[in-house]
Amino acid sequence: MQASSMEGKVALVTGAAAGLGRSTALKLAQAGADVAIVDIAEDGLRETASDVEAAGRKALVLSLDLSERANCATAVQQTLGTFGRLDALCNVAGVMKPGPTTAFPDEAWDLTMKVNLEAPFFLIRAALPHLLEAHGAIVNVTSCAAFQGQAYFAAYCATKAGLTHMTKALAMEYIKEPIRINAVAPGGMMTGLVHGMAALAGCDRELIGRMGSLRGMCEVDEVADCVAFLASPAAKSYHGACINVDAGITAD
Ligand SMILES: NC(=O)c1ccc[n+]([C@@H]2O[C@H](COP(=O)([O-])OP(=O)(O)OC[C@H]3O[C@@H](n4cnc5c(N)ncnc54)[C@H](O)[C@@H]3O)[C@@H](O)[C@H]2O)c1
């Protein structure tokens, strides 16, 4: 699964300061795209920008908190203002706040909904007219948590199932238009996100153990290859798809 040329094209990648977002931004730059990189973590963004520039492409650093709704439109406007077009939107940013439901804080619920579910919608809403003009693509990063009942992850699972189904609803709404809208559902990857698992100390280990794959973790770069492929014209027949890259977790 490899991205085709993105020469002359522009991609906006959220969550690009680390992990899957950074790898996706780099893959798209290597395919020839200039990249607007969005994240709340400015230091990480600067490192990603260096990687993109080392690949010979331009990077626009957008240090924004996507839990603030207005920042979603700002990210799109600034991308257009700098590069003049938008060909691909990759919604990669996410938070994972696990915990026993009776002790789950309101703030963790609100943040999970805002970053994982609402921000992709408001980014998509702002980007759609420009993506239609460019015959572009949207790729939403969901999770195997969209398909598995994961103990202690009710909020996270709800947002990832919601984003997966939002992808399908949008794919139908725009099925007659020149745009492709897809999702990638990764399994476990060794990134900063999984440090959140520490909050599960003291929870039932048997239930936690049921979330993993017998084949172990997925490689970040391998998942990023899939995101970049769907963002590129190579994926011309993909629309409304959700590709599971999860080492067999959802085979169960
Ligand atoms: N790591 C896994 O095991 C795994 C499994 C399935 C799905 N995913 C999904 O993959 C995506 C990328 O996660 P990752 O594994 O690379 O983790 P990560 O923590 O390395 O990356 C997530 C990025 O999102 C950014 N972010 C968080 N809140 C933000 C906000 N309010 N505004 C802007 N940016 C914000 C973080 O700063 C971080 O750079 C997420 O959507 C995650 O849910 C991860």
Automatic annotation (TrEMBL):
Please name one Pfam family that this protein belongs to.
adh_short_C2
Q: Which GO terms describe its molecular function?
A: oxidoreductase activity
The EC code for this enzyme is 1.1.1.-
What CDD domains does this protein map onto?
A: SDR_c
Tell me the SUPFAM superfamilies matching this sequence. NAD(P)-binding Rossmann-fold domains
Domain of life, per UniProt, equals: Bacteria
Keywords from the UniProt entry: Oxidoreductase
Q: Which InterPro entries match?
A: NAD(P)-bd_dom_sf (IPR036291), Sc_DH/Rdtase_CS (IPR020904), SDR_fam (IPR002347)
Name of the protein this chain belongs to: SDR family NAD(P)-dependent oxidoreductase
**Per the UniProt entry, what species is this protein from, by scientific name?**
Novosphingobium rhizovicinum
Q: What is the lineage of its organism?
A: Bacteria, Pseudomonadati, Pseudomonadota, Alphaproteobacteria, Sphingomonadales
